[in-house]
Design a protein that fits this description.
Blueprint: H1 2-14, E1 24-26, E2 37-47, E3 55-67, H2 75-86, E4 96-110, E5 114-126
Parallel strand pairs: 1-2
Antiparallel strand pairs: 2-3, 3-5, 4-5
């Protein structure tokens, strides 16, 4: 189910016109793409099933890397990413989404005028019926 969620999330983010200015939205950090780019930095899952239905709690951290020397230079991207993640539809071929919750964020200045931001979410999902 975790891989199904990762694939659905990336496809959902790629389809958002508000994120069209991001050069790459990938499952992993892209190797040779000019920023801004967005990728899954990490994911981990644990059991979250019920007596009659398997489920998982999956934490996914998204990383945005952009060129900016301003602290709030990537704020519009981060706002659009958060809105889009929280609007992920509930029904997919490999899972059913029960809930999404924002957990934490982190932002840092990096070398060469780059800025990195990490957004972590908790997804609770069930296997399809």
């Amino acid at each position: 189910m975790e891989n199904d969620l990762r694939a659905a999330l990336i496809a959902w983010l790629r389809a958002d016109p508000a994120l069209a200015a991001i050069n790459a939205i990938e499952e992993e950090a892209p190797l040779s793409v000019t920023p801004p780019w967005l990728g899954i930095a990490a994911s981990a899952g644990i059991d979250w099933g019920t007596k009659d239905r398997p489920g998982r709690e999956i934490r996914i951290a998204l990383e945005l890397e952009s060129y900016t020397d301003a602290t709030a230079g990537d704020a519009s991207f981060l706002t659009a990413i958060e809105r889009r993640v929280l609007d992920l539809p509930p029904f997919h071929s490999g899972f059913e989404l029960a809930s999404i919750r924002f957990l934490r964020s982190r932002s840092e200045a990096r070398a060469d005028n780059l800025r990195g931001a990490l957004l972590e979410y908790r997804f609770r999902i069930f296997a399809p019926l």
